[in-house]
Amino acid sequence: MLLRSTLIYAPAIFLTRISALLLLVIATRLLDQTEYGFLALVATIGEMTDMAVTNWLRIAFIRLGGKGAISEGSLRLAARALSLTTVLALLVSMAVSFAIAPERWQEFSLAVGAYLIAGSIGRFALCVLQMQQRHSVYSMLEFLRAALGILLPVIALLLINRSFFVATLANSLGALIAGSIGLGLALAKAVPGAPRFAYRDLVTLGLPLVLMALLAFGINSLERLILKFFYDASAVAVYAAAYALARQPIDVIANAINTGAFPELVSRFDEHGPDAAGKFLGQQMALMARLSLPAAALLTVLSADITDLVLPASYHNEVVTLFPLIVLSVLLANFQAFVYDNIFHAHKRNWLLIWSSVPGSITGVVLGLLLIPRYEGLGAAYALAGGSLVGLIGSIAISSRLMRPQVPYRDVLTSVIVAALCGGVAAMVGVMLGEIWVVVRLGVSALAGGAVFLGLTALVHPQETRRFLEIAVGRLGIGGRRPRVS
Predict the structure, then answer these.
(1) Per-residue buried b or exposed e for 307-321, using 16+ beta carbons within 10 Å of the residue's own CB
(2) What whole-number distance in Å separates Cα of residue 197 and Cα of residue 208?
(3) Is 476 exposed, middle or buried (0-12, 13-18, 19+ CB in 10 A)?
């Protein structure tokens, strides 16, 4: 089931992340570092506010609404809650915008507001499609959002004005178009009926998620605001570019796995109990390690060539030094969010998320305030890594009181060895190729590391590899009938 759902959602998530990376490549060349820094800060404030004030609804809605047919009553209730929380998010973002960017407050707050409105509609549409198990529509919607997300900002930057404000509004317009279409398609399949839950149920599950998101912000994003406070927007630009490059490939893998796995996890918990859910989480952890660790190794050893190829020369030196720490931080954060934090969601004990997030958030803030004034971007990366590590430890410690996932120690150790071999081969090939075109060196090194990964995976996990190929062939429509996969 995990392989099938991962392959279903991976292309859609991959396309949106590729769109974000392409926008990074283009925006860092069309905008100066200060403008790109403001663009990154808009995304930071928008994501923080969205996670705290609107994203909780998605998790609570999935947990309470189940999967399959969704009633019109449930949708109306969730839509009203979303409207109220979006208005609250806009008010919060205006205050935060004035504190972060007082010199360009009007543009900044309008850009964040557009980001929030477009994002809330798109997030709600994807949530309903995910619950309705309409995987193909979900993928098509994400493809449309990815295409518009790169096309409209580039056109706007070239034809209107080269500023973060224009780029953000164009990107938000693309998200709004895709989200509106998706919402229409989702609502068309709603079935008559009363809501399965009440406002009180949403608030009971959602309020802890709001507080948890604010605490998580101390781990994952506050270092950018501290950079802006002690330095300027150009310092944020370098750090944000490194974070985007190091994060996106690993996030594609983890999000593709969790997007399909989360509804299945809560379903197994409700129908078969904690033991079945713990076993499923162990399988999810094994798959995340199997795919994420080799990707992290390749990103780390190829970081210099990736940076040289993707970013302008003014970004190169500092970005390369930040890569390993950010890659490590993303890995730790993904295992926390998509394995151990899911235990709290399954048990509907979201208040415990707050206590599990407090130590990591405090660690991230303290390290940021201590290290960033002295070490700038490198200090921010250390703060991110420290906060992520403590956050994962806190989540493991508290979630173990509710349920212990069947940790696949052997699979994780095997994945570490495979990752080391992949990275080692890619690094050696890069050294052997020497001073040639960077795109050639990067491509050949990545292919060599990827070939090692595929070969070792087929050797260590022959049945899973065969199943993966069968599902992939079936998805592509090759060879007649699509195979059945449980």
Answers:
(1) bbebbeeebeebbbe
(2) 18
(3) exposed
Domain boundaries, the chain: 1-197
Q: Tell me how far apart the alpha carbons of residues 57 and 201 are, in angstroms, rounded to a whole number.
A: 11
Cα angle at 61 between 59 and 65, to 5 degrees? 130
> Smallest Cα–Cα separation from 328: which of 391, 286, 386?
386
Specify the DSSP class assigned to residue 336.
I
| Secondary structure of residue 348 in the 3-state scheme | coil
Alpha-carbon distance 312 to 35, whole Å?
14
Residue linked to tokens 């003014």? 314
Q: Which two tokens stand for residue 419?
A: 């990752």
Phi, psi of 191 (to 5 degrees): -105, 150
What is the distance between the alpha carbons of residues 396 and 32, in angstroms, rounded to a whole number? Answer: 42
Contact 94, 46 (CB under 8 A): no
**Residue 189 φ then ψ, to 5°:** -100, 5
Tell me how far apart the alpha carbons of residues 88 and 411 are, in angstroms, rounded to a whole number: 45
Q: Enter the tokens of residue 427.
A: 């690094």
**Contact yes or no for 52/213 (Cβ under 8 A):** yes
Instruction: Enumerate residues 6+ apart whose C-beta is below 8 A from 174.
Output: 145, 147, 148, 149, 151, 152, 153
Residue 457's φ and ψ, nearest 5 degrees, are: -65, -40
Please list, in sequence order, all residues whose beta carbon lies within 8 angstroms of the beta carbon of residue 443, skipping any fewer than 6 positions away: none
Q: Scanning the structure block, which residue is given the tokens 């150009």? A: 234
pLDDT per position as a tens digit, 185-242: 888 888 887 777 777 777 777 677 676 666 666 556 678 888 888 888 888 888 888 8
Rounded distance, CA 392 to CA 197, Å?
31
Q: Which pair of tokens denotes residue 76? A: 């109306």
Q: What are the angstrom distances between the C-alpha of 134 and each of 292, 339, 383, 416?
A: 26, 24, 40, 35
User: Which tens digits make up the pLDDT trace of 231-281?
Assistant: 888 888 888 888 888 888 888 888 888 877 887 788 888 888 888 888 888
Residue 190, SS3 per DSSP: coil
**The model scores a pTM over 0.85:** no
Question: Which residue is associated with the tokens 């990103």?
Answer: 299
Q: How many residues does the chain have?
A: 486
Environment class of 214 (CB within 10 Å of its CB; exposed 0-12, middle 13-18, buried 19+): middle
Three-class DSSP labels, 197-223 = CCHHHHHHHHHHHHHHHHHHHHHHCHH
CA-based torsion, 212, 214, 217, 219: positive or negative: negative
